[in-house]
Automatic annotation (TrEMBL):
This is TNG6 protein. Signal peptide: none annotated. It comes from Ibidorhyncha struthersii. Coiled coil: none annotated. Transmembrane segments: none annotated. GO terms for biological process: protein secretion. PANTHER family: TRANSPORT AND GOLGI ORGANIZATION PROTEIN 6 FAMILY MEMBER (PTHR20959), TRANSPORT AND GOLGI ORGANIZATION PROTEIN 6 HOMOLOG (PTHR20959:SF1).
Length: 130
């Protein structure tokens, strides 16, 4: 039903914009994917789930006041996905993070550069300047 879809979207959006919300949402959706699966079919399901999660993360929720605010809240959390230490989930989280980064860069290049690419490349730029 429409009311349930709207309510789920609202709850998901609220969770995403909280501290560590991105990681919680990714863990919740990806749970049970890829860890024990084998073969091409399991890998395809894993890729589709990662793409779906990336699309969710790249979409600004209606509850957010502005796209800039959303990127400001969510992008540092997306970059944190690249540093997950747990080997079982690190690969999926990195896949979600890179797919989200690419999606955001295509849809809103200036915001993605400011909130994702500049922080990601800052250490490299510091090294090249000295």
């Amino acid at each position: 039903p429409t009311w349930l879809r709207r309510l789920c979207g609202q709850l998901l959006s609220e969770r995403l914009m909280r501290p560590n919300g991105v990681q919680a949402v990714v863990r919740g959706i990806m749970e049970g994917t890829g860890a024990g699966g084998a073969g091409a079919e399991a890998a395809a399901v894993d890729w589709r789930k990662c793409d779906t999660v990336a699309k969710i993360l790249a979409s600004c929720p209606q509850q957010c006041l502005s796209l800039e605010d959303y990127y400001q809240l969510v992008c540092p959390q997306i970059l944190d996905l690249l540093h997950i230490q747990d080997k079982l989930t690190a690969h999926q989280f990195q896949r979600v993070a890179t797919t989200t980064l690419l999606t955001m860069a295509k849809e809103h290049p200036q915001l993605a550069e400011k909130h994702l690419l500049q922080p990601l490349l800052a250490p490299l730029l510091r090294c090249s300047e000295t």
